[in-house]
Every structure is written in C-alpha cells, then in structure tokens.
Amino acid sequence: MPNRRSAGTPPSGAADGAGPFDFVVVANRLPVDQVESSDGGTEWRASPGGLVSALAPIMRQSDGVWIGWSGSPGPAPEPFDSEGMHLIGVELAPEEVRDYYEGFSNATLWPLYHDVIAAPEFHRSWWEAYVAVNRRFADTAAANAAKNATVWVHDYQLQLVPGMLRQTRADLRIGFFNHIPFPGYEIFAQLPWRRQVVEGLLGADLIGFQRRADATNFLRASRRAAGLSTRGSEVNAADGRRVRAAAFPISIDSAGFAEVAAQPHVQARSKEIREALGNPKQVLLGVDRLDYTKGILHRLKAYGEILDDGELAPPDTVLVLVASPSRERVEQYRMLRDEVEVTVGRINGDHGSVGQPPIHYLHQSYPKEEMAALYLAADVMLVTSLRDGMNLVAKEYVASRQDETGALVLSEFTGAADELTSAFQINPHDIEGLKQTILRASTANQAELRRRMRAMRRRVFEHDVAHWARTFLRTLEDSADHRHRRREPGPGHTRPSPESEQH
Ligand code: G6P
C-alpha cells in the first residue's frame, strides 16, 4: 500500500533507520525546473527531458517520493510537492557541481560510455566528489525509505548508490536503470575506478539497460573488472546475492503524446510553422540536446552536400534544427556549439537568399505542445546519433504521426534502432549513405511511408513507458523476493559479508 505521509515528514521509524516511503526514486535531477512566474517570483514546473516524461506518471500513481538535485548550486529547497509528486532536494555545493556533475558525470563517464566520441578526462578529485555526492544521495534515500521499500536508482551519475544503500539498508529492494549505453569492456577498462563502479551497481537486485548489448557489456565488466562469475544474465555478487542484468528499453507516454499532437491548437500551430517556413514542399527536422553524441555535425555535412549537389534546395526544402542548450559550462559542449553555429552560418550563407535560409536553427527548449507541432510539421525526421542510449525524440515523432505519414531517418547506433526496425536506418559516419537515405526518405511514396510508420507506431504504442516501468518493477520484485527467500534464517544460515568500502 502506498504511504500517504508527505515528503519532509520526519522519518517514523527512526529507531530502525527507516523513513516513510514505500517507493523511492533516486535520480540526479528532480523532475522540475525553477522558472519565473507571471507575478515576478519563481515557481517549479515539470521539466522536459526523457527521464521525467518517463517516470512522472508512475510517481503520481504510486504516491512515492523523488530524490534529486534542483539543478542550482547551493542549498537544496525544502521538501515540497509539485505536479502530484513528493520531491526531496539534495544539495550540491558549487565545487560539487563542477567536480561531480560537470566533471566526473559529464566529462568522464558521459564520453566514456558513449564510445569515447569525445575524450574522457580522468581526475582523482572528480572521483572523490562523485563518491561524496553518491553517498549523500544514498543517505537521503536511506532516511526516507520505509522498511522493505522499493528504491529505484537512475543513471550514470549515481552508480555507487545501490552499493552504498545495500550496506546500510539490506532490507531494501533496490533497482538500478542505466539510461545511457554501457560500453564494451575495452573502453570501460580505461576507467581507473572500474571495479568500484561495477561493485556499486551490484548493490542492486536488478540492473536495467536499454539494449541487450549494454547488459552483455556489463556482465563482461563484472567478470573482468570485479573478478566475479556470471551465469546467463546473472552475476554472482561477492556477498552471495545473484544480481540480474537485463534490457528494458525505455519509452514515452505514447497515448499522452499522441493526445497532445491531436489537439486542434497544436495542429493549427503546425500549419502556422509550415507557413512561417514559406510553405516548403519538404520540411526536414532535427531535435536534440546540443550534444556531441547526437551527430549534429554529420547531419549538417550530409545536408550541406545535398544542397551543394543541387538535389534538394530552398525554398522547396528547409531544415529546422532545434538544438536545446545543454551542459553549457562543459568545454566540449561549448566547442560543439561554436562548430554547429559556424557550420549553420556557412550553409545558410552559401545557399540562402533573403527570407529563404535552408536551415532554421533554434538554440532553445520548447514545451511539449510546440514539440508536437514541430513533429507534425516535419516530413522527414533526422536522428543521426553517433551513440545514444535510446533516443526518445524518435519515438515522440512516431507517436505524433497519427495519419501514418512522415519518414523517420534513424541512426543504427541508437537504442531505438533495435525496436524501430522499419525506420530508414543509417550509419551517420557514412555520409554518402546518409545523403542517399535522406533523399530516399524524402522521395518515398506514401504507401511505403505508411507501411513503415504503421509498424513503428504499433511498437511505440504497445511498448510505452508504463509497460517499461511495469516490466522493470515486476522483474525487480521477482529478483528481490528470490533474494529474501534465500536469506531467510534456517539451520546453518550465515549473513553474507558486507561489500568492501567504496573509495
Ligand atoms: C540524458 C541523461 C539524463 C540527463 C539528461 C539531461 O538523457 O540520461 O540523466 O538528465 O541527459 O542532461 P542534464 O545534464 O542536463 O541532466
């Protein structure tokens, strides 16, 4: 039964260290952003982002608590309720934002886990901050989780939390989901703290990944970095538990998204967008966080060459490039922004005329309605990631195309490519192939597009985010129950030895 006490209530079971909540989500970010309100003050609003759209509906249903960082350095806000969710903030000091968030999370792990597209940096001071901040998240979760509660830890920023929680709260059912890829061992092995990371993750009962290949990579890392044996999809952890690693491809609230796209004002807005673009025959669209993993420069190279070749040209064809601001204080992101903006400027300079640029570049974030209107306005959606855990934009495009029109060009290096096999799949490194596929997608006949879109829509609607969460949580329940049964005291029962200290 969900517990109805609100966030911030002093833990009821202080004696045994337990808190009030039966379901606890732990993620680097709270699912809300602080924005300016109409009266000049500030208010919390649900943030866009993949993880938020994925978990918000489940949080509301289960009356659980979400533990995360507000996104600003300095003291955490007092626990509060927003969008039907209980939220507890974790404080990050300015140096921790620099060393744990911008540093170890986004300049060490992010590039390492995305096949070293950018060079990862390894700094011992960043690792120390990562350990300290993971400890804070683990302590906050431990203080708020009821006895035998389910704790679901998310993503690469918090890989040590399952191990830390297991040490202090062996009663908990702990799940971990990695939203980004898990790299092959040859790459992962570069990490000086690879053993500690593997052992941290193994504090969970179940470790979820986007693709089967990610789970396989993790199983291999457990053998090689931690010297543990594996059997099928299970790791034999050092304390005698069996930990399962498996694929649970994340999705979107497909019906909810389709509903937004079907609203008359959103449909009207999509017509307005096409008009503002000069009513071209063909609208191409790219939507990403401005991140080097997304292959934005590869996309621009292919499009620029198509224009050079004269195979497509404005005003008949335009590309709308939405690149939302991201991690702007990290050097690699600043450099990428400069490169993208120079490239866009060059292509527009070479191929544009007054009022008719071939690229409409927007370095901004938009609410869901505007995104849906953009998807509806686009004939061809371009997803060209060099490596991507899932790519929910691809799924949102599919969910919004109720009339089964539109073409999805999709990189085979996304998690989504495993599921959306009817997309026009591309290798973004193969610029010639990318150009040919963009042209093929933009000239395909309606029957072919419909056949492809129908198959993709079936997948996206049958495997939505509710299905993802249900499947993960059910599997977690089975794995943890199995552990509890095995641990029941009986003749000759001994407690497993605690895991070694993370450092
Ligand atoms: C990816 C990660 C998330 C992260 C998001 C935005 O989707 O998997 O964990 O929250 O990017 O990045 P940010 O650094 O702004 O949180």
UniProtKB/TrEMBL annotation:
It comes from the Bacteria. Residues 479-503 are annotated as: Disordered. SUPFAM superfamilies: UDP-Glycosyltransferase/glycogen phosphorylase. Coiled coil: none annotated. Pfam families: Glyco_transf_20 (PF00982). Belongs to the glycosyltransferase 20 family. This is Trehalose-6-phosphate synthase. The lineage of its organism: Bacteria, Bacillati, Actinomycetota, Actinomycetes, Jatrophihabitantales.
